[in-house]
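Recall that a protein's primary structure is simply its ordered list of amino acids. Everything else, from secondary elements to tertiary packing, is in principle encoded there. The following example makes that idea concrete.
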Amino acid sequence: MKIQLDKGFTLIEIMIVIAIIGILAAIAIPQFSAYRIKSYNSIAVSDLRNAAAAQEAYFIEHKSYANSIEELAKKPDFYTSPGVVMNVGGDQTGYTMRAYHPKGNKSYMLTGPGGSVTGN
């Protein structure tokens, strides 16, 4: 007599495992996408705050706020993150800056001096 030991998984067991993996993926992938969008938005806010500090340093040297991102970029300690789009306007009394990341879902604005970041 031959004794045959069946080793391995049945088709039903494999299908159940695949279904569980599919359910977990359906939950995890949208959450991951939401976290990515939040991180892109946070990058834009961070760049705005860095630009505000650069505007104050620029004002000390020139007695006027920078009117373009190119003027701010001349400062050695100022940079923008890759992908962030920033618009800058300024004069002797204040500045207004907008920033967003194309992969984010919000645009942020900072009006200064002394303003706070607002989003829409």
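The first strand starts at residue 85 and ends at 90. The chain has a mean pLDDT of 90.
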